[in-house]
Specification:
The complex is a heterotrimer of chains A (666), B (338) and C (342). Chain A contains 19 helices and 22 strands. Chain C has a domain of 202 residues: MetI-like fold. Chain C has a two-stranded antiparallel ribbon. Chain C is globular. Chain C starts with a helix and ends in a 7-residue tail after the last helix. The chains are: A alpha+beta (666), B mainly alpha (338), C mainly alpha (342).
Chain lengths: 666, 338, 342
């Protein structure tokens, strides 16, 4: 008896498998198209030819967009988010006062503001607020909502968040806590908000509220700046300044708009510097934007549904989108494995996927038309008439990577060998200009860009990138020259370097291939110059890298910078200013640093365009002459989208894809 | 011990039950000493086709590993000397492009997507495989034997305490525990190269041996010759060293030697998650995981998967084939008459 | 036996605590900044590391942090998972059904095929079929699982397009199962679909299970096959089997009625270990097929040093392991009279 039912099991397993597979398409390559979907929504799988991945038509319905990506947002709270994934979603969930005019980072069209004006001194912005705009949850947009949103953001000012960009123009401070401490004369090194007297806390909050004033009767919002800020509208266009529904927020338990309670105790601090998960908008959204948040299953997918009541009745820009979005549903899946993403692409289950640079040859055959630019107006080449993808390639990004010398390395660094020439490097190795120049002459930009970046990039000429004040496409740059490299090393440290050689380790952040390549290229060329110059390359896990950076142990730190706004000041500050994110860890010699700081501060407040240009050009030149870094490259971007997708464009400053502008044409 | 099979965990080769408290108390382990002559073992090894294949395979790998400096010397080019000169386990790299190069005259097996020499990697990877296998199994065995022997022989509270420790280590799912520990160790600059992965696999892999040894000792303890020795006045240490241990060690050694083959797979699993050896190190698992993004274009890029993958498969195969035979030799009940 | 069970149940919390202490001990290897890296994305702007460290209580000594975690855990609060972006408890509940579904569907072929093939192999020892089956099982145990998985994915999903590329359901059904009209009982779609009477959803869910199950099952099957084979071989040489043969019983009867039941005893425990192992998350398979289960998320947490999540998951999985082992031990004791649980 027992033996019999054992026999049944394998058979039934096969039966089950058979049943499952019977739901699949016919495996005869020439069979007529058979719908392979069980009862459900209609699909666009008309011209499906099984087994032929190149012509596989999309299985995604024409009103849906599916993307397979690798990022997951940290939070969906607009003033909290300082990474592109979250910001991309906030850009469609919410609206700000103004919007970027399509691909231009410095031209704007009305959004929630119908018109605006700037005072002559550049310190007062007045926006007229649009009427008849509703939030997803039903509330109506009032000017007070807009003021509330910006104030809340600045008071929230989460640790290392984006609100510093607003703090500086509006309050002349880098953090609200710092401003409160200043008002309360709290000067201790490790003081926190808790040490600030109540008066000062309330005052700081009142300052914020006074700077952003709404008038519901006039229908305006007025923002007052502490110093002229030419890029202020760019900040206003970003999701960080998204409009929230104050009433709804208060109902959900967020800040009520008051600085203090009735008895005068400051209450706003309760919502200050929260962790990501502690805010109401962490995983919920109630905006005015073209899409509503359907569901966020973190680590799996995030889905959006179109907002049919979207306020936009006229095109955002000539030929731009209007009315409710054309794509009714967005499904963004998180798929970490490249092989799986590719399979989705081949099977027609995704309209776009993230393609790592190393794998672009694997999708080459699927490309129908190649656009050498960010949209369909760019020069087009048809590659494969049967292809299913369009490729947009070579558009500029506002990102630059540099290898930055540490002039005074932590003595306990594990990357400097013995700390003496010969078997290591001394901690002030890079304070010698000849050393820095030599390292620059030993870097092979051609190989880096052609092989490491597959041609998708240009040599960086200094801290300032293309298109900004002070940038000159013909400015002096270094190039690979082993002879000059040897010469400068021979001259360095009174000839001791050439005599004794040196040994050091270059570390990069694990998983970043381009930075690894840059490190290897530098190491290799130094060894080619002379075998006495031994440089090894090591990968560090992110926690170790963070630690090494904090301790200033890295002799050379290879890192990148992404623009916050389109202005040279956003570039010279991190790379050169004594308070800059990178430069402050480099410790330039005092004289040089003072000179640099003076120029930067001057350029910041300079009103005259030509003078400003000259100041930034001078800073760019200083960076080159002093060889403060090896300025590596500015990479260009690349995107693959299903042929059916229309309306794609790239705005280098605005994050990600603006799904509202997309539609599909089967 | 374990392989990367996610389901089996720490039970793979053992037919003993899971809990440390439930030994196979009546499992007879005969007096194994006499049949273990070398000549007998060698004869058995060549007695059937599968073990011949296994022996040939392993010998071939051993030869490759030993002759690595001759078979794959570090190229003279200063670029490569920088890499494999100081440490021959660093694989030469021929460029920075990210497209693999198919086999040709210069690169016998082609290159990986990041331009590492596959031939060099496969040859020196044989050394890494043996080294890693022996070290991991050796260390795990050492720890497992000590703990298992102490627990098994002394019994009582020592047994209780040690077995609880074993349970604690076993309660943490093997692969995930190894991943956690490897990640933590990698942040420490004192642990470089293969050390984090080795330590992680050892730290959670010794428990299988401990249980095996303990169970064997528990049953051997009941054997007549132990009673006899004790009644003759032999001390504890003597009894352990001369009677108990030799008889109980063999099954564990069998399991351990088989595990050398499967450790390669566990190592590959760690490489899959980026926790194995550093990039550019000569290790089959590392090369295969670098091939992982090219599996979609396997037709063009077959060599990236075939050579390192074939090496892993053949290496494991060799051990598996030999293992079956060794188990057949050492299992007394299979000898058809005792 | 009852005393045994009670004793094991009493020890269980101690073991779990022991595991958490083990994890905190591993943690003490890391510096404060390294532990902070979880909360600081790769950005140059990270300046206020001190403030962040204070906020997350990382400046306190490790035993204090452990005590704090323990205190919260005792109240049922497992903390917030930074990598999962949800409270840890909720995360486990959300991911568990997917892992359970995958495990259950894998265990059946593993057990059935593994046993069947192992017995077949042993009974035909050294004949052709034995060699063929041994080759099948050996290739299974010699290949890294991710190679198999990716190959299957590329061939069947990518190139041929017969099967889906991952996840649990096709896009058109995903909204359906989240809608309020859908009756959710187990959150395992193969069960719930039947409860809701939707055969189309059931088929879709099964189709999505095929590749992950094959990947997961193949290797475990191979191991089980070998174990069964060797156990069966052992048994077939026992005295009582020889006696049965000498009595003139047909070989089939000898095998089925006498040998196999005894040979399968150790297999019971392996099977139990299997199921527990599968439940604890098949990390590699889940990563390749984008299956939203526990294993993939656990690896994510471990790789990012999200210790809170690691602790929570380990507690849960440790619990499963220990309880599962206990059940298997009891099964084993009831089935094998030679074993005494003392």
């Amino acid at each position: 008896m027992r033996s019999h039912w054992y026999r049944l099991l394998p058979a039934s397993a096969i039966l089950v498998a058979g049943l499952g597979l019977s739901g699949c398409r016919s495996d005869e390559p020439d069979a007529a198209p058979v719908s392979d979907q069980p009862v459900g929504e209609a699909t666009a799988a008309d011209a499906v030819t099984p087994g032929d991945a190149v012509t596989g038509a999309s299985k995604v319905p024409a009103d849906t967009f599916v993307s397979a990506t690798i990022g997951d947002p940290e939070s969906l709270d607009p003033p909290w988010t300082y990474e592109t994934t979250g910001a991309t979603y906030e850009a469609i969930l919410y609206d700000s006062l103004v919007a970027f005019e399509r691909e231009k980072p410095d031209a704007f069209v009305p959004a929630l503001a119908t018109e605006w004006e700037v005072s002559d001194d550049g310190l007062a912005y007045t926006f007229s607020i649009r009427e008849g705009v509703t939030f997803h949850e039903g509330g109506t947009l009032e000017p007070s909502d807009i003021a509330y949103s910006l104030q809340r953001g600045m008071l929230q000012d989460r640790v290392d968040g984006p609100m510093v960009l607003y703090m500086e123009p509006i309050l002349g401070a880098t953090t609200i806590a710092g401003k409160a401490m200043e008002l309360g004369s709290v000067t201790a090194e490790d003081a926190t908000l808790a040490d600030v007297p109540n008066e000062a806390l309330v005052d700081a909050c009142e300052l914020v509220k006074a700077a952003v004033v709404a008038s519901d009767e006039d229908g305006t919002v007025a923002i007052t700046l502490a110093q002229p800020t030419p890029w202020f509208l760019q900040l206003v266009a970003q999701p960080w300044a998204a409009a929230l529904d104050m009433q709804w927020m208060v109902e959900q338990g967020d800040w009520d708009g008051n600085c203090a309670s009735e008895d005068g105790t400051a209450t706003w601090t309760e919502w200050h510097a929260p962790a990501a998960e502690e805010t109401v908008l962490f995983n919920r959204a109630n905006g005015t934007g073209p899409y509503m948040l359907d569901q966020w299953k973190s680590g799996e997918e995030i889905t959006f549904n179109a907002n049919e009541g979207y306020w936009r009745t006229e095109p955002a820009w000539p030929g731009g989108p209007s009315g409710p979005p054309a794509l009714k549903r967005l499904v963004i899946q998180k798929v970490d494995e490249w092989g799986t993403r590719l399979a989705k692409l081949e099977a027609g289950e995704a309209d776009t996927v993230v393609v790592p640079r190393a794998n672009i040859d694997q999708v080459e055959a699927m490309i129908h038309t190649r656009y050498d630019g960010g949209d369909t107006s760019a020069p087009a080449t048809e590659q494969n008439p049967d292809g299913m993808l369009n490729l947009y390639i070579g558009f500029p990004t506002q990102a630059m990577t540099a290898a930055m010398f540490t002039f005074a390395i932590n003595a306990e660094s594990e990357f400097i060998g013995t700390g003496q020439l010969g078997d290591g490097i001394p901690v002030d190795f890079f304070s010698d200009l000849d050393v820095r120049k030599a390292f620059n002459y030993c870097f092979d930009w051609d190989t880096m860009i052609q092989e490491g970046l597959k041609g998708e990039g240009v040599q960086a000429r200094g801290p300032i990138i293309e298109g900004l004040q002070g940038f000159d496409p013909a400015s002096e740059v270094y190039a690979l020259d082993l002879d000059l490299c040897r010469e400068h090393l021979a001259a360095a440290w009174g000839g001791q370097v050439a005599e004794r050689g040196f040994k050091m380790t270059l570390a990069y952040n694990e998983g970043n291939d381009t930075r690894q390549t840059a490190a290897e290229i530098l190491a290799e060329n130094l060894t080619l110059a002379d075998p006495k110059y031994q440089v090894s390359v090591q990968s560090l896990e992110w926690p170790s890298f963070l630690e090494a950076r904090r301790l200033e142990s890295l002799p050379i730190a290879i890192s990148g910078w992404q623009a916050d706004y389109f202005d040279a000041s956003n570039w010279v500050h991190p790379f050169m200013h004594s308070q800059g994110a990178y430069a402050r860890a480099q410790h330039f010699p005092a004289e040089l640093q003072t000179r640099i700081d003076a120029r930067i501060d001057e350029a910041l407040i300079e009103q005259d365009v030509a003078k400003r240009e000259a100041l930034y050009a001078e800073l760019q030149q200083i960076a080159h002459d002093e060889a403060i870094d090896v300025f590596l490259f500015q990479a260009t971007g690349r995107a693959y989208l299903n042929r059916q997708v229309q309306g794609y464009y790239v705005n280098s400053l605005a994050p990600g894809t603006y799904y509202y502008a997309l539609s599909k044409q089967p | 011990m374990t392989q990367d099979s996610e389901a089996i965990g720490a039970v793979a080769h053992s037919i003993h039950p899971i809990s440390p408290d439930v030994p196979f108390v009546d499992e007879p382990i005969a007096n194994v000493v006499d049949r273990r002559s070398v000549r007998y073992v060698v004869r058995q090894l060549f007695s059937n086709s599968s073990s011949i294949i296994g022996t040939v395979l392993l010998t071939a790998f051993a030869v490759i590993a030993l002759a690595a400096p001759l078979l794959a010397p570090c190229p003279d080019d200063p670029r490569q000397q920088r890499r494999c000169g100081p440490d021959p386990y660093n694989v030469p790299r021929y460029g920075f492009s990210q497209v693999p190069i198919p086999p040709n005259d210069v690169y016998r097996f082609g290159t990986t997507p990041t331009q590492y020499d596959i031939y060099y990697g496969v040859v020196w990877g044989a050394r890494t495989a043996f080294k890693v296998g022996v070290v991991i199994v050796g260390l795990s065995l050492l720890i497992g034997l000590t703990i298992g022997a102490l627990a098994g022989y002394y019994g009582g509270w020592i047994d209780e305490g040690l077995m609880r420790v074993v349970e604690v280590f076993q309660a943490f799912p093997f692969l995930l525990a190894a991943i956690t520990l490897a990640t933590i160790l990698r942040t420490n600059p004192n642990f470089t190269g293969t050390m984090p992965a080795i330590l992680a696999l050892v730290a959670f892999g010794w428990t299988g041996y401990a249980r095996l040894v303990r169970a064997d000792i528990l049953s051997v303890k009941q054997r007549e010759y132990v009673w006899a020795a004790r009644s003759l006045g032999a001390g504890d240490r003597q009894i352990i060293m001369r009677h108990v241990l030799p008889n109980s060690i063999f099954p564990v050694l069998v399991v351990a030697s088989l595990d050398i083959g499967t450790v390669v797979l566990s190592f590959a699993a760690l490489s899959f998650f980026g926790l194995g050896v550093p990039d550019g190190y000569a290790d089959w698992g590392q090369m295969i995981s670098s091939a992982r993004t090219r599996i979609p274009s396997l037709v063009e890029d077959w060599y990236i998967v075939l050579f390192p993958g074939g090496a892993i498969a053949l290496f494991s195969l060799g051990w598996n084939l030999i293992g079956d035979t060794i188990r057949d030799i050492l299992d007394p009940r299979l000898a058809g008459g005792e | 036996m009852t005393t045994y069970i009670i004793r094991r149940l009493l020890i269980m919390p101690l073991i779990l605590l022991g595991v958490t202490i083990l994890i905190f001990a591993m943690l003490s290897q890391l510096s404060v900044t390294q532990r902070l890296a979880l909360y600081v994305p790769d950005s140059p702007r990270a300046s206020d590391l001190e403030g962040l460290a204070e906020q997350y209580g990382l400046n306190d000594p490790i035993p204090v942090q452990y005590g704090r975690w323990l205190g919260r855990m005792a109240k049922g609060d497992l903390g917030f998972s930074k990598t999962g972006k949800q409270p840890v408890g909720e995360l486990i509940v959300r991911l568990l059904p997917a892992s359970v579904e995958l495990a259950l569907w894998s265990v059946i072929p593993i057990l059935v095929l593994g046993i069947w093939l192992g017995v077949k192999s042993a009974v035909n020892h050294n004949r052709f079929i034995d060699h063929v089956l041994r080759i099948v099982s050996i290739t299974g145990t010699s290949m890294p699982s991710f190679v198999l998985g990716l190959l299957l994915l590329m061939v069947f999903a990518g190139k041929l397009g017969w099967l889906p590329t991952g996840e649990r359901l096709s896009p058109q059904f995903r909204q359906l199962v989240d809608a309020p009209e859908w009756i959710t009982v187990t959150r395992m779609y193969t069960v719930d679909a039947l409860i809701n009477g939707r055969l189309d959803v059931w088929l879709d869910a099964v189709r999505h299970l095929i590749l992950p199950v094959v990947t997961l099952a193949y290797i475990s099957l191979a191991v089980l096959q070998r174990v069964t084979r060797s156990s069966m071989l052992d048994t077939l040489r026992q005295d009582y089997v020889r006696t049965a043969r000498a009595k003139g019983l047909a070989e089939r009867v000898v095998v089925m009625r006498h040998a196999r039941p005894n040979a399968l005893l150790p297999v019971v425990t392996i099977g139990g270990a299997l199921l527990i192992g599968l439940l604890n998350g098949a990390a590699i398979t889940e990563t390749i097929f984008n299956w939203p289960g526990l294993g993939k998320r656990f690896v994510d947490a471990a790789r990012n040093l999200d210790i809170i999540t690691v602790l929570g998951f380990t507690m849960f999985q440790g619990l499963l392991l220990i309880v599962g082992n206990l059940i298997v031990d009891m099964l084993y004791a009831t089935v094998d009279p030679r074993v005494r649980l003392n």
